[in-house]
């Protein structure tokens, strides 16, 4: 049996809030953790010819599971792709991504579509990749087959999605889909904005002002959508439902009521809602546009509070890139620009930069970005923890290193991100997938091959 040993004096183990010395024994062929010792084993006690990964005083953390990523391949591979997207993920300590059903062509709304997607991902992925399916009007007969084919759940939109091939659903579509899925081992994810604008409203005059955009997607859109979802949940209580990318803190009371009533509702928010604020987005800065929008600083603080008290369950990237032209950077046309923010590679550093100022521990951050997200996608028996029997997915992390985000440092395809120019705290030094190096900050990807699996 070929063995890899990973050790360090600051390791985050599952049932602990503190970093502690540990030695992790990995079986090289399977990439599984076979033993965890809560101490540093002396090197002369180790068997000969083992591969030793010694993190020294750097921190060893479980790899992140990013449950919300748009890789856009095939069909919009000029926006992103499995190769570049998963490299970017690996550079930020993410070892599993779950790809959204839309923005690729075809979208993942039938088993045939899923096969197309899996075929194009094959051999290109640096991280493990799993897939969400989609619910659109008319694809009800494909839902059960998609569950059987292995999608981790389904995403739908209550407002136009931005791409023609993934239309939004109405209440009747939802009732049909929920009655089909209610006894399946799956969950239903909602883009929770519901357009409540009356048609008589004035056309916005200033297309470059961020506040114009903010007013066009008010808190009421999220409150209305989440109220509809929780109302439907009472009819189909066995089906777990999930709110993707919550932005509005004003929707938190509806969520708290639903959770207190015992509804199976979970909620994610994104790095950008926790790190950026509307007040700091200048006129014409289209690269900070996403839907729902980034709101005011006071809203951001309430999202942090909701994460801390468990109303919001976890944090994902919603990495949603596009080509430069669609961001309308030169015109500064925020209203006309594609809505989506590119984040892969930066999430953990972004969150640590903000969280460490708020006295939040690394263990708490990993709970939000790895443990809980793994559970959400049904991978909690093999991902998200440094524990015997789990995949040896881990990162070596320097919590004190500071760096400036530059375009050159971004690994995703289109180097457009609102984080360029920011100084962040905490840096991924190395990322390992099933015991194999998939990213090294110093040597980059020179020695690395895409070894990710499709889960
Ligand atoms: Zn998304």
UniProtKB/TrEMBL annotation:
The reaction(s) this protein catalyses: (S)-allantoin + H2O = allantoate + H(+)
Domain Amidohydrolase-related: 59-436
InterPro entries: Allantoinase, Amidohydro-rel, DHOase/Allantoinase_Hydrolase, Dihydroorotase_CS, Metal-dep_hydrolase_composite, Metal_Hydrolase
A molecular function GO annotation: cobalt ion binding
Record GO cellular component, one term: cytoplasm
Pfam families attached to this UniProt entry: Amidohydro_1 (PF01979)
One Gene Ontology term from the biological process aspect of the record: purine nucleobase catabolic process
Pathway the protein acts in: Nitrogen metabolism; (S)-allantoin degradation; allantoate from (S)-allantoin: step 1/1
Superkingdom of this protein's organism: Eukaryota
PROSITE patterns (alphabetical): DIHYDROOROTASE_1
Ranges in coiled-coil conformation: none
Cofactor(s) required, per the database record: Zn(2+)
Keywords tagged on the record: Hydrolase, Metal-binding, Zinc
Protein EC: 3.5.2.5
Homology family: Belongs to the metallo-dependent hydrolases superfamily. Allantoinase family.
Record's subunit section: Homotetramer.
Protein name (record): allantoinase
Organism lineage string: Eukaryota, Fungi, Dikarya, Basidiomycota, Agaricomycotina
